[in-house]
Amino acid sequence: MSFYEENILPHLIGFLCAQSPIRRQREKVVPFAEGRVLEIGMGAGPNLALYDPTRVTHLYGLEPSAGMRKKAAPAIAASPVAVELIDLPGEEIPLDASSVDTVVLTYTLCTIPGAVRALEGMRRVLKPGGKLLFCEHGAAPDAGVAKWQDRIEPLWKPFAGGCHLTRDIPKLLRQGGFEIEQMETGYILNSPKWAAFNYWGSAR
């Protein structure tokens, strides 16, 4: 990875992901994780404080960026649950089939190059009856906002670590083999509309 990706981008992403509107979105899904949990794209660890230690027995944190893993160290040290780090990308989940109860996916699907392949891997490692908890931003339903997303995305992606603004999250989940169990959508407050349309819920 480049100097920017390892030394500057982790601080930028860490700052953006720590904002109150984003944290409130995470709070809608992360506390419902249970059993053996796999978090995809753990980043700087903004979800760690939200896990319920009475519900989670083990947490795998998959994060391919050394810079992000380094920045996550304080959050890992303060985590209410023990974290086992995996330094691989989302397309290369090394766990056994049917080995986790919950997969947590928050603001990560936008940056994974092979999103469908990664989702197929998440489906593979989930136990029968296991669930995927997701909170992602993506394509807005309003034509005016969508037009700006199309315009801004080519400039935004190199700056934001490959983040896509226009991904159709429900479509990707279905392509990855998931059935959406429940989902809510909407623009989060105090954020630019071209990056603010969110999808959150659970899938099996």
Walk me through the structure.
By secondary structure, this protein is of the alpha/beta class. The protein has one domain (3-203): Rossmann fold (3-Layer(aba) Sandwich), CATH 3.40.50.150. It contains 6 helices and 7 strands; from the N terminus they run H-H-E-E-H-E-E-H-E-H-H-E-E. The termini are far apart.
Can you give keywords for this protein?
34% helix, 25% strand, 204 residues, Rossmann fold
Strand-helix topology:
Layout: H1 3-17, H2 20-26, E1 35-40, E2 56-62, H3 66-77, E3 83-86, E4 100-106, H4 115-125, E5 126-137, H5 143-159, H6 169-175, E6 180-187, E7 197-203
Parallel strand pairs: 1-2, 1-4, 2-3, 4-5
Antiparallel strand pairs: 5-7, 6-7
- Choose one word for the global shape: globular
Please name the fourth-level CATH homologous superfamily: Vaccinia Virus protein VP39
Structural class: alpha/beta
CATH class: Alpha Beta
Helical fraction equals: 25-40%
The biggest beta sheet is recorded as: 7 strands, mixed
H/E series: HHEEHEEHEHHEE
Mean pLDDT: 93
The CATH topology:
Rossmann fold
User: Poorly predicted ranges (pLDDT <50, ≥5 residues)?
Assistant: none
In the sheet with the most strands, the strands line up as: 3-2-1-4-5-7-6
- The share of residues in extended strands comes to 25-35%
In whole angstroms, how far apart are the ends?
A: 34 Å
What Rg do the Cα atoms give?
A: 16 Å
Number of strands: 7
Count of separate DSSP helical elements: 6
| CATH structural architecture | 3-Layer(aba) Sandwich
Total separate domains: 1
